[in-house]
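Students often ask why we bother encoding 3D structure as a string. The short answer is that it lets us treat folding as translation between two languages. Here is a chain of 77 residues written in the first language.
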Amino acid sequence: MNKYHFSQKVVDQFFEHDYQDRGMTKWQGFYLSDHTVTIKKQRYKNKHVAKIKNPQTIALIKQRLYYAMKNNYEVTI
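And here it is in the second language, the structure alphabet:
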């Protein structure tokens, strides 16, 4: 048997007079795992948006690829 017994009166009195709410809400606690997975996917999708570039000549493409290869730069096509 539980040695601690609180009446509803004691609990009500505690929340009315003794307990001080800090006014902070811990929102992360309300997210379900499905929500966090969806949020992470959306952030990844928004971060990796393909940007349409202006057309380039073959000579310019070759020049830039050579420069990138020579200097060990990453190239996205």
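Translate back mentally: DSSP finds three helices and no strands in the chain. Keep this in mind for the problem set.
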